[in-house]
Design a protein that fits this description.
The complex is a heterodimer.
Chain A lengths: L1 H11 L2 H28 L6 E7 L2 E9 L4 E3 L1 H11 L9 H20 L7 H29 L20 E5 L2 E7 L1 H20 L4 H8 L1 H10 L1
Antiparallel strand pairs in A: 1-2, 1-5, 2-3, 4-5
Helix pairs in contact in A: 1-7, 2-4, 2-6, 4-5, 5-6
Chain B lengths: L1 H6 L4 H10 L12 H5 L6 H9 L3 H10 L9 E6 L5 E7 L4 E6 L14 H9 L16 E5 L2 E11 L4 E6 L4 E7 L6 E7 L5 E6 L15 H4 L2 E9 L4 E12 L3 E7 L7 E7 L15 H4 L5 E8 H9 L4 E3 L2 E4 L1 H6 L3 E7 L2 E6 L5 E6 L4 E6 H9 L4 E2 L5 E2 L2 H4 E6 L4 E6 L4 E6 L4 E6 L14 E7 L4 E7 L8 E8 L15 E7 L8 E8 L7 E5 L14 E2 L4 E2 L10 E5 L2 E9 L2 E3 L2 E5 L3 E8 L8 E5 L4 E5 L4 E7 L4 E6 L12 E7 L1
Parallel strand pairs in B: 11-16, 36-39, 38-44
Antiparallel strand pairs in B: 1-2, 1-32, 2-3, 4-5, 5-6, 6-7, 8-9, 9-10, 10-11, 12-13, 13-14, 14-17, 15-16, 18-19, 19-20, 20-23, 21-22, 24-25, 25-26, 26-27, 28-29, 29-30, 30-31, 33-34, 35-36, 36-37, 39-42, 40-41, 40-43, 43-44
Classes of the chains: A alpha+beta, B mainly beta.
């Protein structure tokens, strides 16, 4: 079957057309799949979300940067302040997610990349986890923000003066003498970019017929081409 | 006043505008840009306020030059001796605001200095005299550490005239790290000064006495009493003086006064002046002339010219003897090895100051209206040609006329000299009282339009000026701009506060050439009589905001082995010894209950685990004379014997947070 296909291609297509087909059905989807996977993996190194707390006593503000596996910035200072209102230390949030995140993201990326080799509807299925990943991240972040903000220790020193609250995912909020402002950060934007690239990859990949592409990239066939010239 | 004359008829608002536009205010960055100033309207009510307060245009100009709106930082920092407060005062220039007092020789509760904290107790005890705990000092001459003759802002040294001690302050945390007691002397004055790279910290003596602090009858003054200059070896990497590598030179029993290190042209030499070369021994009660008269008989005293580099060679060759375990080059060796020369100086001087290039030295005989400028080149050639005369101890005396470059009549009671960047020198005139500006000669003469070696102008000061300090005014590259007149008397300058009055620091603008010097600000100094000060560009200082790591021991500048972290707080009992490992954080100590028995020996470690700027916690324990300051990251230790039973509270003495009052605990001592 494969052999037949190759012969047929050989008969009907010229080199220029072969190069075009290679580009359209092989290089292009491969590039987008790999890009999506690489960018998603690279997002591990960038913060996904950040929070700034401003108060007169902190002229430079207090900052936290949320990565998929860690929280950096003025964590101990914010924990110290949070103990007054009875909020748990940030280190106790999303422990499982942070522990699994790097492994999970690499796995998702590799699974997505493997769709390159799958030339049917299962390719979309393999890409689905990455497509959903940003939404899952946002949902999980909201879950923890709500859980921490709504469950303040009622025996904390300032529990009577600060009502339970939920820190918005984006935008500002006044809490006691602080104004907090939250925004998504570059890591998250990369994850979103990865989803877009994946969509393009799937679009390009949609019509790529496996025997055709295999014939196109098959080494012996290319050899024939070069022999002919 | 140039500005005053020019603008007297002009309205004040216009003058204010002009001051702002002319960029005379010495600040940048945080000010509105000049474009903003162009468009700024000076409200008419400014004139009204000025009229109401009786302010002149000059006053308004001075106010504009010194006023710092909230949050604006000073351009310069002045380290002033604290005199008999035994401390160092840190003052912002030009705002003249007291920023901090650094505890040195004297316990200071705010800094937890000498009230239990082990580091401070150990450092203070280093300065004990035998079994006597010396708990004050008379700081005279602070010296910022130098690199190539310029302030590097890393360390600060100061002396205690009363007890011949030298202290080292680390300018990373502005805390005293070491006190060395001079083993051979009981008082000093010619200290501290540093050599151009701070290898040596100079401590010149003052009132001659038998070296080693021994007894000898005053009848034996000429034979047994000695002057001295000590060279303390500073180990910059350790941040400490190394007494074992230090040494002293025995000097004749003239009263050495102030020293200065040579630099550039005179690098490797040290200059000290002296008085009482008469060797008056006082005894007014026995009908002898009092010191004030006896020490003022001769027309000339001796400028000491010390070949430090050669002294170091003599030291390396082992030609020293031990006095109280300290290496001293004996006077006969000093003579034999040609380590010391004298140049006559107008009598009873109170300062020798080396020019920025090290090429001239200026001495002011305080009973002579001149400043006398010596040429180092001439000194070297006079030495080379072989001095003809010697004093009774065999020290060669150079011929006065062979070594002087100039004498300038500046006024009455000249004392100390500083330098600027426009070829001017400034000399304090105690008696007038005023500060004289005079034009330097030699290579400095082209920096202004006045004739070389001439008096340019004077500005009166209130009152009785001692030292003066110009911005980086004793370095190889003085900045000019500001000069502080450190006046001994204030008299009527401030609201009366009883018979003991503050001293008066007066800030003078020296940025304009010629006869234009402007008095800008009076700062009352109600905390000990300062002597000398140094003014360093603020951006040369780079102090820590918090200690580098949690658990930091400021004495060792490293992590303390007893530092305690969250969750590891504990009380460990071993027989009668109780050891407490505590943390402090807003707003609690942990533990909050410490239960011990009377007779226990308690060793108590506290770590401030904060990382926030300014989140200092204090720790006061009632009944046991314990008070600590624990800055963010700092770990400290104190110990005491539980001699009182009862219930004692301990609490945070720094208002650290809204729940500061609740930051407390109980020490329960069972009978």
């Amino acid at each position: 079957m494969v052999w037949t296909m190759e012969s047929k291609i050989n008969d009907i297509l010229d080199d220029k057309e072969i190069r075009r087909l290679l580009k359209r059905y092989h290089y292009l989807p491969t590039f987008f799949f790999l890009s999506a996977a690489f960018i998603l993996m690279f997002s591990i190194f960038l913060p996904y979300w950040n929070l700034t707390l401003e108060a007169p006593q902190y002229p430079d503000g207090l900052h936290v940067n949320l990565y998929v596996n860690r929280v950096t910035g003025d964590v101990s200072e914010i924990d110290g302040l949070n103990h007054y209102i009875g909020m748990k230390p940030l280190a106790e949030a999303a422990k499982f997610e942070r522990a699994m995140s790097v492994f999970a993201i690499i796995s998702l990326s590799l699974i997505t990349a493997s769709a390159i080799l799958v030339h049917n509807q299962w390719a979309a299925f393999l890409s689905l986890p990455v497509m959903l990943y940003p939404v899952v991240f946002v949902g999980d972040l909201y879950f923890w923000l709500r859980l921490f903000g709504q469950n303040l220790d009622s025996t904390a020193p300032l529990s009577s003066s600060v009502e339970p609250f939920t820190q918005p995912l984006m935008g500002t909020k006044a809490i006691a003498n602080f104004v907090t402002s939250a925004s998504f950060d570059n890591g998250f934007y990369l994850a979103c970019l990865s989803v877009i690239l994946l969509g393009i990859a799937l679009y390009c990949h949609r019509k790529s017929y496996r025997p055709l592409t295999r014939a196109l990239v098959d080494g012996s066939y290319l050899q024939q081409l070069s022999d002919r010239h | 006043m140039f500005f005053g004359q020019l603008f007297k008829p002009v309205n004040i608002a216009f003058l204010l505008m002009l001051c702002l536009l002319s960029g005379l205010i010495g600040c940048s960055g945080q000010n509105p840009s000049s474009a903003d100033l162009d468009n700024m309207d000076i409200p008419a009510d400014i004139k009204e306020i000025a009229d109401l307060r009786g302010l002149t245009p000059d006053d308004i100009e001075a106010a504009v030059k010194t006023y710092h709106p909230s949050g604006m930082h000073d351009e310069y920092i002045m380290f002033s001796s604290g005199g008999h407060s035994g401390q160092i005062h840190v003052v912002g220039i030009p705002s003249m605001r007291l920023l901090k007092t650094i505890a040195v020789f004297t316990p200071a509760p705010w800094q937890g200095w000498g009230y239990g904290a082990a580091g401070s107790m150990e450092i203070l005890n280093e300065g004990n005299f035998g079994d006597t705990q010396l708990r004050w000092g008379d700081t005279h001459h602070p010296a910022v550490s130098e690199t190539k003759g310029d302030y590097d802002g890393q360390f600060l040294f100061t002396n205690d005239k009363a007890n011949a001690r030298v202290a080292v302050i680390d300018l990373r945390d502005f805390e005293t790290k070491q006190i060395v007691k001079n083993p051979i002397a009981n008082n000093d004055h010619g200290s501290t000064m540093v050599t151009p790279n701070s290898e040596w910290v100079i401590e010149g003596g003052q009132y001659a006495a038998p070296l080693g602090t021994d007894y000898s009858s005053i009848e034996n003054y000429a034979e047994d009493y000695k002057g001295m200059v000590t060279f303390w070896k500073f180990d910059r990497s350790a941040g400490r003086i190394n007494p074992d590598a230090s040494f002293a030179m025995e000097l004749p029993p003239y009263w050495q006064d102030i020293c200065d290190a040579g630099k550039l042209a005179s690098d490797g030499w040290v200059f000290c002046n002296s008085f009482n070369t008469e060797m008056s021994t006082g005894g007014v009660e026995s009908g002898n002339p009092p010191f004030e008269a006896g020490a003022s008989q001769r027309d000339m005293d001796y400028l000491h010219i010390i070949n430090l580099n050669k002294a170091i060679e003599v030291l390396a060759a082992g030609k020293t003897s031990l006095v109280n375990g300290f290496r001293v080059i004996p006077l006969e060796t000093v003579v034999r090895e040609d380590l010391l020369y004298f140049a006559p100086e107008p009598k009873s001087p109170h300062g020798v100051d080396v020019f920025p290039g090290g090429d001239y030295m200026v001495v002011s005989g305080k009973l002579d209206p001149h400043v006398t400028v010596y040429s180092f080149e001439k000194i070297l050639s006079a030495i080379a040609s072989g001095p003809a005369k010697k004093d009774d101890y065999g020290i060669p005396i150079l011929n006065f006329d062979d070594v002087i470059a100039a004498q300038i009549e500046v006024g009455l009671g000249p004392l100390h000299t500083q330098f600027d960047n426009q070829g001017y020198a400034y000399t304090s005139l105690f008696l007038e009282p005023a500060v004289a500006r005079w034009a330097m000669g030699g290579p400095y003469k082209d920096r202004n339009s006045e004739p070389a070696w001439s008096l340019v102008s004077k500005i009166p000061v209130q009152y009785n000026v001692g030292h003066i300090s110009a911005a980086e005014g004793d370095t190889v590259s003085p900045d000019g701009k500001y000069l502080v007149s450190m006046n001994k008397w204030a008299i009527d300058r401030f609201a009366p506060v009883g018979p003991l009055l503050p001293q008066n620091f007066q800030l003078i603008d020296i940025s304009e050439p010629g006869d234009d010097m402007q008095l800008l600000y009076d700062m009352p100094v109600g905390f000990g009589e300062p002597h000398y000060a140094q003014i360093i560009k603020a951006d040369k200082l780079n102090p820590w905001k918090v200690y580098p790591e949690v658990g930091w021991n400021p004495e060792t500048q490293s992590i303390d082995p007893h530092a305690t972290t969250t969750g590891e707080e504990r009380i460990v009992r071993d027989g009668k010894n109780v050891e407490i490992f505590m943390t402090a954080v807003r707003s609690h100590f942990s533990p909050e209950h410490v239960e011990i028995k009377k007779g226990d020996h308690v060793v108590w470690h506290i770590t401030n685990i904060e990382r926030a700027y300014d989140a200092t916690h204090g720790f006061a324990l009632s009944g046991y004379n314990i008070n600590l300051s624990i800055e963010p990251g700092e770990s400290t230790t104190f110990e005491f014997d539980a001699v009182h039973d009862g219930v004692f509270s301990y609490y945070c003495t720094e208002f650290c947070s809204a729940l500061h009052l609740e930051m407390t605990g109980y020490l329960l001592v069972q009978p």
